[in-house]
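Cont'd.
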Amino acid sequence: MADAAEAAPAPGDGSGRSARVVLLGPPGSGKGTQAEVLSRALGVAAISTGDMLREAVAAGTDLGRLVEGIMKSGALVDDETMARVVRERLGRTGPGAGFLLDGYPRTLPQAETLQEILGAAGSRLDAVLSVEVPEDELVRRAVARHRADDREEVVRERLRVYREKTAPLIGYYERLGLLRPIDGYRPVGEVTAQMMAALAGLASLAPLDRAAGVTA
Ligand code: AP5
């Protein structure tokens, strides 16, 4: 899922390819699910830091060895390591290119790092889609999935970390005028439609007419 825009439309064709969007939300809220659909609709790369770290663990790289235990515990990888990972990944995407960031930023320092990376490239975020889902549903979804960090006690720890470290980003992005709240407690296609409507309303991303027909 990390690069679902291989067959992306050409820049400037009205596809929304330069859309720079963050997907913010608790574990199990559907960020990865929506990133995959939206990346195809908008023709931009879906970049999931969780997927990148899991790939590093599977490949046994230095990064993978560093983060494996942290991920299993439900804690966050440190901000400096994540800054290196994201800086390198966005550097490959190229200045001005669009992206859907799934799982980054997760702390205020990470949000500031992202602003700095984009600012240095003469770029900026267009929108932050903030997905809201009741906590019992988040636990139900995650435990049903059976990923290595989806045991109920680890999911509850990830939710605690989310409330403490990541939820403050909602106010941060609201103050920047970027926040678009999304009701994630709906069927997948309805959530996608809400997101497309939230993005289509942004003058900087118009026109999204072709993509707006997507209902997953
Ligand atoms: P990460 O992989 O980012 O996990 P997460 O944020 O906990 O998110 P999930 O993948 O659990 O959920 P999701 O919101 O993507 O939902 P999904 O679409 O999968 O991070 C894992 C770990 O990596 C972190 O704990 C941390 O250790 C580390 N890490 C990553 N980024 C980091 C960073 N920036 N800083 C520090 N550490 C970092 O859906 C979940 C389930 O629900 C699926 O089964 C899906 O089919 C289902 N579903 C989706 N939508 C719906 C719907 N509308 N209705 C019903 N079911 C649905």
